[in-house]
Design a protein that fits this description.
It is a single chain. The chain folds into three domains: 225 residues, FAD/NAD(P)-binding domain; 101 residues, no CATH class; 76 residues, no CATH class. The strands form four sheets. A seven-stranded mixed beta sheet has the order 6-5-14-15-16-13-17. The protein has a five-stranded parallel beta sheet with strand order 8-2-1-12-18, sandwiched between helices. Helix content is 42%, strand content 23%. The longest helix has 32 residues. The relative contact order is 0.13. By secondary structure, it is an alpha/beta fold.
């Protein structure tokens, strides 16, 4: 039986959800507070490009958009590490197995791809500039304002989904009835923020640094990263504390201090970024936080994606996790024969522990990326992991479990991966490791890792 469904939020999770529910035969009203990003500049400080990996690709495959997404992305085969001083760079592959890599993709390009598909679907009605201001999560109803005309609107449906991001208005509806459903909510800010900059294209759209890599300039308590874009540019992001010395608060509106900071910490990028100081002063500084909450649903409403579990970006899984939400929820719709209330229950019971796990992993990975990727023990550990993955098809490192093993839950990946990391780092510290390792020693390591208590 067809249902009338309201989805607030036409970002990556919401539009993907709209496509799949419409494919199941339901009528979908898709509301987006911003304008149409295919026609208007609506980035508003959001990350320009993202790391797409297997979980996100599997979700896109659900609606037939996987190949189209790959066609507008750039493979990144590993982390290109730039130690301080610029004397060496090293590529740390993401996997020891051929073909396992992540993709740099434009947020706008991917969202536009989905919105085009939504336009072509007869059961999806999309409304831009529709900002939800109140959500009745018991009655699956929303009211709001058309930000273009100033007129108010209201929609009532059989079901309501909130995919409206970390600042979700639909989640506010759960807070309004908080005591009756024992709603819990937390927002944990990092003391670091981020600012996006750019390395422009080289001559004839060429890439001025290695194209097929995620570049990292680790500096202990802060770091710079760069992801490639199709036009030859790189989106560069500085992650820095607000109140360190220097920090964002100390550099704000101080062009000489900005240049001095980059000359001291990242001198090799200055010539690659002719608009560095101007971009730094003009572009907003974004905050980084983790949202955890529960429950995610009533009998008629459900929050998904960042509205339910926003994460910091350091495992490259925020988008992938949000889109995997759709894949997992679709499974429970199949399992329950579209008994919505039961599907909501089963989905949350299965998904909450995994959302919490990837949130914790993302914070852990921030400290690894900025503090340890150029550490000798970490590099030795990664070399052993690469050899294990290339030799044993059933072995996967923590990064591999999270990024390339979509059949493994985030919570399982976290538990097993952290146990493996602890064991391998201890092995490296206690042994004079030379890689590649002899096959008999490698086999002993693999067997020990397989038998770890998790």
């Amino acid at each position: 039986m067809s249902s009338n469904i309201i989805i607030s939020g036409a970002g990556l999770c919401g539009t993907l959800l709209a496509l799949q529910l419409a494919n199941r035969g339901h009528n979908v009203t898709l509301l987006e507070k911003r304008g149409d990003l295919r026609k208007e500049d609506v980035a508003a400080g959001r990350s320009i490009n993202l790391a797409l990996s297997d979980r996100g690709l599997a979700a896109l495959d659900l609606v037939g958009l996987k190949e189209k997404a790959l066609a507008i992305s750039i493979p990144m085969k590993g982390r290109m590490i730039h130690p301080k001083g610029g004397e060496t760079t090293m590529l740390l592959p993401y996997s020891g197995r051929s073909g396992e890599h992540i993709q740099s993709i434009s947020r706008t390009g991917l969202n536009a791809l989905m919105l085009d598909a939504a336009d072509d679907h007869p059961l999806i009605d999309t409304h831009f500039h529709h900002s939800v201001t109140e959500a009745d999560v018991r009655k699956a109803a929303v009211t709001g304002i058309n930000t273009r005309t100033g007129e108010t609107f209201s929609f009532n449906g059989d079901l309501l989904f909130g995919t409206d991001g970390a600042g979700s208005e639909v989640r506010q509806g759960f807070m309004h009835i908080g005591a009756s459903i024992r709603f819990n909510y937390s927002l944990q800010w990092l003391d670091h923020g981020y600012k996006e900059l750019e390395i422009p294209p080289g001559p004839e759209g060429s890439w001025l640094i290695e194209k097929n890599a995620l570049h990292i300039w680790p500096r202990d308590s802060f770091m710079l990263i760069a992801l490639p874009n199709l036009n030859g540019s790189f989106t560069v992001t500085l992650f820095l504390a607000y109140d360190s010395h220097p920090g964002f608060n100390q550099l704000e509106n101080k062009p000489d201090a900005v240049r001095a900071f980059f000359e001291a910490e990242f001198p090799e990028v200055i010539d690659l970024m002719p608009d560095l100081v101007q971009d730094f002063l003009h572009n907003p500084t974004g905050a980084l936080g983790t949202v955890k909450c529960s429950p995610w649903h009533t009998d008629r409403s459900l929050i998904m994606g960042d509205a339910a579990h926003a994460v910091v970006p350091f495992y490259g899984q925020g988008m992938n996790c949000a889109m995997e939400d759709v894949l997992k929820f679709n499974h429970f719709l199949d399992e329950t024969g579209e008994n919505w209330a039961k599907a909501f229950d089963l989905y949350q019971a299965d998904r909450k522990k995994d959302a919490d796990a990837i949130a914790d992993l993302a914070v852990e990975n921030y400290y690894e990326m900025r503090d340890h990727v150029d550490n000798d023990d970490f590099i030795a550990k990664r070399k052993i992991e690469m050899q294990l993955e290339s030799t044993y098809t059933d072995y996967a490192s923590k990064y591999n479990l999270v990024t390339f093993c979509e059949h493994v839950s985030y919570s399982t990946a976290k538990a097993r991966g952290n146990a493996q990391d602890k064991w391998l780092l201890e092995y490296v510290r206690q042994n004079n490791v030379a890689t590649p390792m002899a096959s008999d020693e490698l086999g002993k390591i693999c067997e020990a890792l397989k038998n770890l208590p998790v």
